[in-house]
Amino acid sequence: MISNIFRLNKIDFSKNNLNSVPEIPGIYIFWKENSALYIGKAINLKKRIASYFSLNLYEKTKRLIREVNYFSFIKVNSNLESLLLEAYLIKKIKPKYNVSLKDDKNYLYIKITNEKYPRVLTARKKDEDIKDILFIGPFPSANNVKIFLKSIRKIFPYSDHNLQKNKCLYSQIGLCDPCPSEIEIINNLDEKYLKIKEYKKNISLLKNLLKRRVKSIRKYLFREMKYYSRLQKFEKALDLKTKIENLDYITQATIPVKYYIENPNLYEDIRKKELNELKKMINQFYNLKYEIFKNKVNYLKKLNRIECYDISHFSGNFTSASMVTFINGVPEKNLYRYFRIKQKLGGSDTDSLKEVALRRLKYLHIWGSPDLVIVDGGKAQVSAFTKIFKEYNIPVVGLVKGKKESLVININLNNRKNNDNFSVIKIPYGNALNLVQRIRNEAHRFAQKYHHHLFNKSLIPER
């Protein structure tokens, strides 16, 4: 399986070849002929590899670069996947410069002790003599490990301290909950038993997350949420719902590392499956409408370019809109645009989208034409965009949250004055859902980024 890594496409290590590197998460490998010299991870592959062409490099990095002939990369879905894949490949391949740096202070293991109240710690070295202790790693970046542990501690609180007389500071902000020190002073045996059980369950779920068993964790949390909802313990159910949302955010459809090893082109294959599934789902819907109404309707002949729009504001103030563009399922940040909404205070999201659609229309030929437009919203938002884009035969769909994400489609039939004919498609879990959620989340992030910029700018008095 590891032999597939050595068959990766090797690109000449030259600044001129940076254009072939995408701006997405992944791992990169530096080669000297067919020997792996160094394996690293990146949130943005292009920027990370470009940094090695800087003149201000540390001496040990300069020694590495002098030996590099080629580089390769593997694209992944999320930062978590790149972190775990990097650690796995370093452990299996043992590249020259990764191994030589193992004594460097940056290398860390995640360590889970085997005690009455297991603690989650970090360690510089893996002690092979100590039994029944789980070590995950090594991870080259101590900072990445600490950020990762900080993220998952909000979902599965854990202890990193010895037992003490009073509960710890972290227990007061929900990061060590229940705190072992607090459990130990409980006199009621039934209550104490339940608290111990809760703590150990957190540790068990955390171990499963580190072993990349994300689907089983999500199913468990979802079952628990439904259980507490039936008991009308809504506060507990809401807490579990928040855990699920946070888990989804940090994992982002995490795929087991072994699949990337078996197929280094897995990222591209997943993107193709996502696009094909979404295209098929929308086309099946349009074809059904065609049979019912015997009328020609828009449908997707190709799905290479998708644009998504979102609105962000604070009580109608500092309203901004985003346009994010995905080419073949991958974000193309050079084609991102943001809009400062010009309408007066009090305009609705629908009015803002109408303004954005009209402004987008002016640049249709300059910026390029999308094959599909997604708006964050329902019937009103879809209708706002469709009425402006209708004559250009560009399909527009809305994405609505609920128990299940749904696509809202406006079918324009017979060119009637009142031509809003909406249908709703529930999107099943799978490739199409992963794609539209990823696009919508990126549009939301980009809109909020510009909204915050406008807000912060307003705090600085003009001279």
From TrEMBL:
Cited PANTHER family: UVRABC SYSTEM PROTEIN C, UVRC/OXIDOREDUCTASE
Single GO cellular component term: excinuclease repair complex
Protein name: Excinuclease ABC subunit C
rRNA processing as UniProt keyword: no
GIY-YIG domain span: 23-99
UniProt xrefs under InterPro entries: GIY-YIG_endonuc, GIY-YIG_endonuc_sf, GIY-YIG_UvrC_Cho, UvrABC_protein_C, UvrC_RNase_H_dom, UvrC_RNase_H_dom_sf
Domain UvrC family homology region profile: 169-389
GO biological process: nucleotide-excision repair
Superkingdom assignment: Bacteria
GO molecular function: excinuclease ABC activity
Organism: Candidatus Woesebacteria bacterium RBG_16_34_12
Record flagged with keyword Cytoplasm: yes
Keywords: Cytoplasm, DNA damage, DNA excision, DNA repair, Excision nuclease
